[in-house]
Write a structure and sequence with these properties.
The protein is of the alpha/beta class. Helix content is about 35%, strand content about 20%.
């Protein structure tokens, strides 16, 4: 991978983490050859990822964190993972939204990316349990010149208890969501699999996500390919409860075929539809 010598640190660390998760562990010398950087650079990357809690360092390399089903990385840790794929997914998902829609955005870094692509869609009503998503619309109310933006949305923030990923969950959030009805839900997930369906490591978030799904006429999951096969502590929905999954080109062909048999819609961010 000769081009990897010029990768930004965040991109390089995302590649390292993907290798750790896919292979169940990597060695420093393998990463130096693969990424074309020094041992010292790789060790600094592993130190940074270990501080974020997304992998564990071992002698000569790194392995996935123990207790992965209950581990919930913070927003900043997740935001460096697959940023290009998330933006492609967000751009594709935004095309599903028409002016005047009442929609909901759950917590997550992919829904955060989606919010930025929705700023210029007119007359939206946005329900969210994400502090970060609400901030996107708040900051987007005015352009740099101080003029109102044409796509200014009405935003309803649910309230609730804040998770490490900056989602608001718990009884307050659930009660708010149960009183509302929206056309479309964009749902970020910790993990998605054929057996466990949609899952999260946070029990309270599982209940809030369930409430969001019940309040929506249409459910669209926005999740990159690395979420496939990941299983969190609590499952909150099966695949057949999802209308559409928008993902990226990294999802293997055999998985696409399997998912397409279970879901009404699988949309790959390069425009391909299964």
């Amino acid at each position: 991978m000769t081009d990897n010598q010029n990768l930004l640190a965040e991109q390089r660390r995302a590649l390292i983490l993907d290798e750790v998760r896919r292979r169940g562990g990597v060695r420093v010398n393998e990463l130096t050859r693969r990424l074309g950087v020094s041992d010292m650079t790789i060790r600094r990357d592993l130190d940074a990822l270990a501080r974020q809690g997304v992998l564990a360092k071992v002698h000569g390399g790194a392995v996935p964190v123990d207790g992965a089903s209950t581990h919930e990385p913070g927003f900043e840790a997740k935001s460096v993972l697959e940023p290009g794929a998330k933006d492609e997914i967000a751009r594709t998902a935004a095309a599903l939204v028409t002016p005047g829609t009442a929609l909901a955005l759950s917590g997550g870094t992919t829904t955060y990316a989606l919010a930025r692509h929705l700023l210029d869609v007119p007359d939206l009503t946005v329900v969210t349990n994400s502090v970060r998503v609400a901030d996107v619309f708040h900051e987007g109310r005015r352009t740099g010149g101080g003029e109102p933006r044409g796509g200014e949305a009405t935003v309803v923030l649910t309230g609730g208890v804040r998770t490490p990923s900056d989602a608001l969950v718990g009884p307050v959030a659930d009660r708010t969501v149960r009183s509302l009805h929206f056309d479309l839900l964009f749902l970020g997930v910790h993990g998605i699999s054929a057996e466990a369906g949609l899952s999260t490591p946070n029990l309270a978030e599982a209940e809030t996500n369930t409430c969001l799904m019940r309040a929506a006429r249409r459910v669209v999951v926005v999740a990159d390919h690395t979420k496939w096969g990941t299983v969190g502590l609590s499952s909150f929905a099966s695949l057949d409860e999802v209308d559409t999954w928008v993902t990226d080109r990294g999802l293997p062909e055999e998985v696409r075929a399997e998912v397409a048999e279970r879901l009404p819609g699988l949309v790959v961010a390069d425009g391909e539809r299964a």
